[in-house]
UniProtKB/TrEMBL annotation, chains A, B:
Listed Gene3D superfamilies: Winged helix-like DNA-binding domain superfamily/Winged helix DNA-binding domain (1.10.10.10)
Record has RNA-binding as a keyword: no
Protein name per its UniProtKB record: Transcriptional regulator, HxlR family
Alphabetically ordered keywords of this record: DNA-binding, Transcription, Transcription regulation
Pfam family name, one: HxlR
Length: 115, 115
């Protein structure tokens, strides 16, 4: 049975709920994943790839992800000027967690389907 | 930089959202963690340990966790009869995910606090 160290029994719910809050929500997960799979991506391309997201919503979500230090923003003052987004190391550290959540979700689907 | 295998780019959002849905919610996380730390626990003790949860809410949450196959329920027809709850292997598999979410939440708190 896959086990966690019992002696460290305490669990910081606030930290877990913060993490859940960051990942939940309709768009943040999609945005993080889109930036991740493109490594570096511009705002317009991001909006194009995210079917149905408004300019305002994408701007707001990016602002939140920047504040959480999950996303990096680079401004290029060329002609025309543009901005590129990429994941920070902290943002990248989310990737294996998403994989484990994905696998857990699959396992639940399979187990509940078999009965 | 901590990295995920790029070649497996797709992500099953439904599976992730199912996992997030199971973990989120005010009580399920607390219930899972309480059962985990006690290994085996009876309903009354569980309710006592979960400050403020009603009988109805605990019954409903346990029903959901049973349906998701995360919790096991054993009936003892002794005098007096009683029921014991424990985590299934699937429930136990959530434990390291909660740890990783907890760490991620801490990292975000620390990074945002340093700036």
């Amino acid at each position: 049975m896959n086990n966690c160290p019992i002696e460290k029994i305490s669990m910081n719910e606030n930290a877990i709920h913060l993490a859940l809050n960051i990942i939940s929500g309709k768009w943040r997960l999609k945005i993080l994943w889109e930036i991740y799979t493109n490594k570096v991506i511009r705002f317009n391309q991001l909006q194009k790839n995210l079917d149905g997201i408004s300019n305002l919503m994408l701007t707001r979500c990016l602002k939140e992800l920047l504040e959480y230090k999950l996303v990096d923003r680079k401004q290029f003052n060329e002609v025309p000027p543009h901005v590129e987004y990429s994941l920070t190391d902290l943002g990248m550290s989310l990737c294996p967690i998403l994989r484990s959540l994905e696998k857990f979700g699959y396992d639940v689907i399979n187990q509940t389907r078999n009965n």
